[in-house]
Amino acid sequence: MQSEILFRKYPRSIALRPIQFESDGNPYEKSNPLLLLFDQVEQSYNDSSLQCNVRLLRESEADIGDYRPLGSRAVYGCLGLLQVEQDMFLAVVTECRLVGAIRPNESVFRIIDVEFHSLTNSTRYSVSAYPGNYDYNSFNDQLPQQSYEHPCAQLRKLLSNGHFYFSSDFDLTKSLNVRSTISSADKYTYDEHFLWNKFIIGELLNFRSKLDKLKQLEMDNCGFLVLAIQGYVGMEDTIIGSSSVSLSLISKLSCKRAGTRFNIRGLDDDGNVANFVETETILQLPKTCFSYIQIRGSVPVFWEQQGLQMMAHKIQISRGPAATQPAVERHFNELQSRYGNVHIVNLLGIKEGEYALSKEYKARIIDLNGNGLENRVLLTDFDFNSICKTGNYENMVHLFSMIGERIEDFAFFAQDMESNCPIFYQKEALNTYVRLMGDISSFDIENLHSRHSTLWAENGDSLSKIYTGTGALRSEYTRSGKVTWAGVLTDATKTVNRFYINNFQDKSKQETIDLLLGKLLNSKEIEIHDPVNELIREDMLNRLNDYSSKSTINVYVGSYNLNGRLPSGESLSPWLFAFNDHEPDPHLFVIGFQEIVELKAQQIVSADPEKLRIWEKEISKVLNSRPGQRSNYVILRSGQLVGTALVIYARSDIVSNIRNVEYVMKKTGLGGMAGNKGGVAIRLDYHDTSICFVTAHLASGQSNLEDRNKDYHTINDGLIFRNGRRLTHHQHVVFFGDFNYRIDLGNDE
């Protein structure tokens, strides 16, 4: 359904009015249509949150005499409301392209272009339909004299990249077998894992849910709201026997841990993994419909890649095994609740950091299966790069022989198209289903495979462009089953392009993704004005103590300048247990080291992690071998800047209470070029409290007071965590280390 967009300059208001079409495609004006209106709500001077008044009215009920068309483009629905800086914008789809019908009356569209229109500022221009130009739409009495970039320009670029899709007919966020249940009949009961505009459309969906059922149906028929996925949707029509069939591929990228290649890796504390994709193959026949689902994602442990990534990728396991396990269990519990039993195909090899990552992964699965999951999570190793090196992709047949029985166990989902009832649920794949159809010619099977290969290659290219910035490697073989020199050269070009994009462009793209998903530090959801809800919220805030609790945690913080030495056998207990036995065991031990390596000229640029590992083990041994031991401690996180290092140990019984652990560092030596001096910080959330620990080594020398002060300010201002979070954004900051300040008095004084 298309709509036209109308606006009123003052008081600021925007309206969506449906456009009706004759059978010949010409628009006509429907009498008394339904309007969706968005009005600016005046805010108090001190209130930084923005509110919008939303109304669903018949045209006869709304005074729209002073509204006029906003441009000449039709819109295909609203993506939501967004606050950028101090402005509120309405996001609308202005161009889309039909992909096809997955099943009868289930059309899918690809978003081609979007626009953002301000609801708060009549002098704020709107983002235009064409890159680099801006449509002022008569908003301004006088056009700006200098060049501006619209605050939503990068967001428009992201949403118009050709990887976002929507449907006005069904819930595209859910797979076919989930949609077949009665509880999923409402197309707006979305799966939040795959709804990319949830943050900006959530309040509008709440508004819809408060309408009576008839009004909801009328609003839905107007197509006012757009639920968007990111990924790939492709279709191919073909013939099997004498029947026309359609083959579709739908890949949905999760928005739970979303981001670009080197910015977002591995697992988070809620069990979400980077680059998680659910791919569904659907074969639509006249009387039945086949569906098969497979999933992929980043290795579910805490790992990252910091610094400039050249051809050899530096992988760092960023959290200890015991501190990782709770998140691993959350990840697989979620997968099993959504998909049933899980069989992992591990494609990691034995080179560089892949081996360490694979080893850690398998260790976590062993522990997982030992915690009551009864080996329901199985893992098959398949070193893809070694087995299929030099283009020997036919060796993939070895993988199928390794997991063939499990594939048959999983089967497939099938649905009777006449009764809409499931015939049976997923347990195998396309080949088995085609065989069960009966007498199918080898030509038909080969034709179906060829079309599936085309869709799979396009799917791989699309997902790769989203995550890495280039098409998928080896896609030539996926399409044609052949490897040529031209394909090899194309892959080499993609690799070079990935290096540039991932290292130099992805940071700004990551910020745009976080803006869309509401993950920036100061992101605030646009609230729809509702006096009753505001009274309820105010009352809840006044009664906060009735349904929340507080507790005290004990933290031991110690600093040690090692002068480049390793453990000598001297007991560390008097230092680490410098508190009374009757006091509770600390929840956290936070240890800062300086000069963990000798600060020689050749060592002030890069860190030697081996000495840190030795000291980590020594501290762990002491903490966990104390006479009368009451608590067990595990390494939560560590970080190192050449000679300065920070290690946090947590009591094993509180690890599941800790979330969002991050590490950053800041060099101050040689004007910020060298790491002989500087600071290392680790932040975390303990329940709902944010804490940051910083250990620092400041400039030495009797007379270098100003250098020390300068180092402090450089560290304090330069330690920036993800989403722009600084030290000042934490409720508690502990800053400790070897500051090198001197007290210019005699020893006795």
UniProtKB/TrEMBL annotation:
It comes from the Eukaryota. This is 30604_t:CDS:1.
